[in-house]
Design goal:
This protein has about 160 residues and is an alpha+beta fold. The chain has five helices and six strands, in the order αααββαββββα.
Length: about 160
């Protein structure tokens, strides 16, 4: 883990602006709408409306996708899981971050992550941290419990 220390950590924290709940919702709602839409033509305009041009979506310290790569992957999701749902169970505002603990659910149309799903569905926990800068989402870090999804899809859970 990288930690950067400053001479005045309180000053660094004070520089981060916590978005209001209303502003936070206006940023994350289009992002989640882009991820759950059933219309591939809506993904790009929704995502571009709330993210910076150099926005990245990260699943690890060295596993980030550009906005273009994310648009491509989310467009492919429509075929794999035509009805993908996300719900926010908790939204936490902390300095320049919006943290969303939620759930993702869906029923794959066929094979999913290399497994035959036999019409089964999944429901998993998600955790997203959105870094906000200059009124837009600058970076998103996210974790999903895909191991649990695979257990549900194979009938092991």
């Amino acid at each position: 883990m990288k930690t950067t220390f400053t001479d005045n950590p309180m000053a660094a924290r004070a520089a981060a602006v916590t978005p209001t709940r209303s502003a936070a919702l206006s940023l994350i709602e289009p992002l989640y709408a882009a991820l759950t839409t059933t219309d591939v033509a809506q993904i790009r305009p929704l995502l571009e409306s709330v993210t910076q041009a150099d926005w990245c979506s990260c699943t690890g310290p060295d596993r980030c996708e550009t906005r273009e790569q994310t648009i491509e992957r989310w467009s492919g999701r429509l075929e794999a899981v035509p009805r993908f749902e996300l719900t926010a169970d908790e939204i936490i505002l902390a300095e320049d971050r919006i943290v969303v603990r939620g759930q993702a659910a869906g029923t794959p149309a066929g094979q999913f992550m290399g497994l035959a799903t036999q019409g089964r569905s999944f429901r998993i926990m998600t955790l997203d941290i959105h870094l906000v800068s200059e009124g837009l989402i600058a970076r998103t870090y996210h974790l999903e419990d895909w191991a649990r999804a695979l257990r549900q899809l194979t009938g092991a859970e």
